[in-house]
Design a protein that fits this description.
This protein has 2 domains: about 5-110, Translation factors (Elongation Factor Tu (Ef-tu), domain 3, Beta Barrel); about 120-255, Nucleotide-binding domain of ferredoxin-NADP reductase (FNR) module (Rossmann fold), CATH 3.40.50.80. Helices cover about 20% and strands about 30% of the residues. The protein has 6 helices and 15 strands. It has helices at about 95-100, 120-125, 140-150, 175-180, 215-220, 235-245; strands spanning about 5, 10-15, 20-25, 40-45, 50-60, 70-75, 80, 85-90, 105-110, 130-135, 160-165, 185-190, 205-210, 230, 255. The strands form 3 sheets. Strands 1, 2, 3, 4, 5, 6 and 9 form a 7-stranded antiparallel beta sheet that branches. A 6-stranded parallel beta sheet has the order 13-12-11-10-14-15, sandwiched between helices. Strands 7-8 form a two-stranded antiparallel ribbon. It is globular.
């Protein structure tokens, strides 16, 4: 771990269960620059049975060398279907402790940013189409990538397809809408797999269901075949990488990272 950082901005509730935390250096030095998609490790003391515990979270802001922002979903115990079987998942001890322990002014130990699922610098200046596919809380590196692209004046056609359960788990909606309104080269499309009774199609989401090859072809259109793809979030990585390969997208144009407590690598 590299050093201590101070929680210096308001803690922002993105949804009831998803929270963004912004930190700055306690010594007011410049933070290291990072590529969008990077994550940081945070160490906390006295977590469960361990004297210290480390978790990693993707940065959701763009690099400014002043702040690190990461966004965390507080995982609650639930029963899900996995491989056609019902599985009980425990609550996320660490993610829930962040909500309980952190307040403005809290001091934590953070690492420098690292990771391989990053937006390469040549993508920022390239005019080749970019497709960002996000599932659930896997949206955090995607919003960072989009912010970096637009803040640096990218003119590439950019498509964001974001699949989430419903409005209760729908993070960064206002940010995505604002960016897509401000930048005509950005297309933003939201899918809900299980809309709530008060979720309005056309207002909260665009399509009911999951990200499919048909949807990609519909939203991305003629750019689908020559775009660079970034995919993050369980379980969409496996399904999206499979159909993209079936669409004939070159492997080198498909970038992905599993994201979530049940992630299993291919």
């Amino acid at each position: 771990m590299d050093g201590f950082q101070k929680l210096q901005d308001d803690i922002k509730k993105e949804t009831e269960s998803i929270t963004s935390y912004t930190f700055s250096p306690v010594d007011e030095a410049m933070l290291p620059a990072f590529k969008s998609g990077s994550y940081v490790a945070i160490r906390m003391q006295d977590v469960g049975q361990s004297p210290s515990h480390i978790r990693t979270y993707s940065l959701s802001n763009s690099s400014n060398q002043k702040t690190f922002t990461f966004t965390v979903k507080a995982e609650k115990a639930q029963q899900i279907t996995l491989n056609d079987k019902l599985v009980d998942t425990p609550s996320g001890v660490f993610s829930n402790l962040l909500n309980e322990r952190l307040s403005v002014g809290s001091i934590v130990e953070l690492s420098s940013p690292f990771g391989n699922f990053v937006l390469k610098e040549d993508r920022i200046t390239s005019t080749e189409p970019i497709v960002l596919l996000a599932g659930g809380i896997g949206v955090t590196p995607v919003i960072s990538m989009l912010r970096t692209l637009t803040e640096n004046g990218s003119t590439a056609p950019i498509y964001v397809l974001y699949a989430v359960r419903n409005s209760e788990y729908h993070a960064f909606h206002d940010a995505f809408k604002s960016i897509s309104t401000q930048f005509p080269n950005v297309t933003y499309h939201v899918l809900y797999s299980g809309p709530k009774s008060n979720d309005v199609q056309g207002e909260h989401y665009d399509t009911k269901g999951k990200i499919t090859a048909e949807l990609v072809n519909t939203v991305v259109g003629s750019h689908a075949s020559n775009a660079i793809y970034y995919i993050c979030g369980d379980p969409i990585v496996r399904s999206c990488t499979t159909f993209l390969k079936e669409m004939g997208i070159p492997v080198e144009n498909i970038n992905f990272e599993f994201f979530g407590p049940l992630g299993t690598h291919m």
